[in-house]
Design a protein that fits this description.
5-stranded mixed sheet; 4-stranded antiparallel sheet; mainly beta
């Protein structure tokens, strides 16, 4: 209780960052500090990553602090998601993304590029009664839309202008089994 663990992260190129809780055994908070010790992001470890806006990071060394706010011990499994060129996958309209993970919640980030304003749809095929979370942000980190998808569900949103958008996906923190399924991604224009 009250303990803090520090993790050093080196960022090679500017991009957007998210703390993705995979499982939590205690109530806690995470904090992202830049090399000068200034807090640039933070949040509750019990909150699914799709509820959080991404944090802008620039090249440099960062510290991720995880603090146990509970009265007992426990474990916290997490991963760090970011949009640097080395860790993001470019996807095309019509592509099916795997939603498989060793835990019920593991997340990923993808880049969708559109040449003009377009619509984006997401159609989920998920087994075992689990659900997936999603969030779309523009290149400036602004959240365009987010939600939760179950088996057979569908989401649609407008991408307001040409450019890069990031699709953040993952399993819901309430999932009890490893996430299994896929997410069909489609973009289209209203122009005739």
């Amino acid at each position: 209780p009250g303990s803090v663990a520090n993790y050093t992260v080196t960022v090679g190129s500017a991009g957007w960052f998210k703390f993705d809780t995979l499982s939590t055994g205690f109530p806690g908070y995470w904090t992202l500090l830049d090399s000068s010790g200034r807090q640039v992001g933070g949040g509750n470890t019990s909150t699914d990553q799709f509820y959080q806006s991404p944090v802008l990071v620039k090249p440099g060394i960062y510290t991720v602090q995880v603090a146990n706010q509970g009265t007992g011990g426990g474990n916290l499994d997490f991963q760090l998601l970011n949009t640097s060129a080395a860790s993001v996958t470019d996807i095309q309209s019509g592509q099916s993304l795997p939603l498989q993970a060793t835990t019920g919640v593991s997340g990923s980030v993808y880049r969708v590029s559109v040449a003009a304003a377009a619509n984006l749809s997401l159609a989920a095929s998920i087994s075992g009664g689990d659900s997936a979370t999603w969030q779309v942000t523009n290149a400036a980190g602004t959240v365009i839309g987010s939600g939760t998808l179950g088996n057979g569900s569908f989401a649609q949103l407008a991408l307001p202008k040409a450019g890069d958008y990031f699709l953040w996906t993952g399993g819901n923190l309430d999932n009890t089994a490893p996430l299994q399924g896929s997410l069909q991604v489609t973009t289209w224009s209203n122009q005739v």
